[in-house]
Write a structure and sequence with these properties.
single chain; 2-enoyl-CoA Hydratase, Chain A, domain 1; 3-hydroxyisobutyryl-CoA hydrolase; HIBYL-CoA-H; ECH_dom; ClpP/crotonase-like_dom_sf
């Protein structure tokens, strides 16, 4: 039986997400399962799904019969391609408070996963974007495959990486996270391990066997039985020299100048990709990454991201970026302002100002101090889509179609 084909028992007080089948919450002995179940939408997250997952995790934390939690996605295309950006577009125009409620609940869930008291295993197979990274990237056991394509594509629509994305990207080796955040590029499973966003590499043909093993074995032993002892080479590590040189510092114009004048073709391509995006979103993203490096916990970063998200969606470029990408699909956003030199430092800093009574205040738990970033994969490393999907996943598909046109 495939790991996405189990039946679901629904209680009388099941949420609307459970009743609609958008998320399947299942028990199989000591294994509790969360199955994102919107395959036609690349398992994009809705607000009801977030509420259902959070409630289930709360219940399972106190249930002594639950030993392990497993996150997977239905279908054969994605774990989760993020959120429904059309809903963000609609709510930004008609009900801005709903976006605030959505992000408050989503970011709270991200922190809940990070501090979960039981093993939380995320199978990060195929597409993992945006909100999908928020669900999986903070798990205690993160499994990638040869099919994994992981990224934060927010700058493409004039938004800024969130769901703890600036926490994860600011802690990658060198400036690899800065490169990924500004270009909205994706990474492979091997890259994710090398950058500290995943832990183990399992061939996709062995995922079903791994799920079966999780029902009867402790998590470390189950993963060790099926994980590859040698991880394929990470393509991004081969690019690190020019990435570290070009993305150093806090000046976005300086970064772009170094990229444009680099002898490396990939660097010049990166400059072109960056310059197509919202100048405001890019400048705020760089500032968010630099600030996130100095914050001491995921909770602190999520609280910062909440301020930035509310300020960004209240501006012009998010609505315009979504319009250009998935509403009118002209791929020709009219950014305001339209150039980097027109983005004022005052406007950038305003994105980070306290929200007063609207602040997101996440609970803190006592945890050991986080070590200095030094990515050491648990396994050795070798040297050297189609359809009308209104999610962040579509952004990557559009880019790939244009690149191959």
């Amino acid at each position: 039986m495939s790991h996405t084909e189990l039946s679901t028992a629904q209680s009388s007080d099941a949420s609307s997400a459970e009743l609609s089948g958008e998320v399947l919450l299942q028990r199989d002995g000591s294994l509790a399962r969360i199955i994102l179940n919107r395959p036609k939408a690349l398992n994009a997250l809705t607000h009801d799904m977030i509420r259902s997952i959070a409630a289930a995790l709360t219940d399972w934390a106190d249930d002594e019969t639950v030993q392990t939690v497993l996150l997977t996605g239905s279908g054969d295309r994605a774990l989760c391609a993020g959120g429904d950006i059309v809903s963000i577009y609609r709510d930004a125009r008609t009900d801005p408070d709903e976006n605030a409620r959505f992000w408050a609940d989503e970011y709270t869930l991200n922190a809940q996963i990070k501090r979960y008291p039981k093993p939380f295993v995320a199978l990060m197979d195929r597409i993992v974007l945006g909100g999908g990274v928020g669900l999986s990237g903070h798990a205690s056991h993160r499994v990638v495959t040869e099919r994994t394509r992981l990224g934060m594509p927010e700058t493409t629509i004039g938004f800024v990486p969130d769901v703890g994305g600036t926490y994860l990207y600011s802690r990658t080796p060198g400036e690899l996270g800065t490169h990924l955040a500004l270009t909205a590029a994706t990474m492979t499973g091997s890259d994710a391990i090398a950058l500290g966003l995943a832990d183990s590499f399992v061939d996709s043909t062995r995922l079903d066997s791994l799920v079966e093993a999780l029902k009867r074995m402790p998590v470390p032993a189950a993963i060790a039985e099926y994980a590859e002892s040698t991880v394929p080479a990470a393509p991004l590590l081969a690019e690190r020299t020019w990435i570290d040189e070009c993305y150093a510092g806090n000046s976005l114009p300086g970064i772009i100048d170094r990229l444009q004048n680099s002898p490396v073709a990939a660097a010049r391509d990166a400059a072109m990709a960056i310059l197509a995006k919202s100048p405001t979103a890019l400048t705020v993203t760089l500032e968010a990454l630099r600030r996130a490096r100095e914050l001491d916990s995921l909770e602190a970063v999520l609280e910062q991201e909440y301020r930035v998200s509310l300020r960004t969606v209240a501006g012009h470029d998010v609505v315009e970026g979504i319009r250009a990408q998935v509403i009118d699909k002209d791929r020709n956003p009219n950014w305001q302002p339209s150039s980097l030199d027109a983005v004022s430092g005052t406007d950038v800093q305003a994105h980070f100002a306290p929200l007063g009574e609207r602040e997101l205040r996440l609970p803190r738990v006592h945890v050991p101090a986080e070590p200095e970033t030094s990515v050491q994969p648990s396994t050795s490393v070798e040297p050297g889509m189609t359809g009308e999907i209104h999610t962040t996943g579509e952004l990557r598909q559009n880019t790939e179609r244009k690149a191959t046109a």
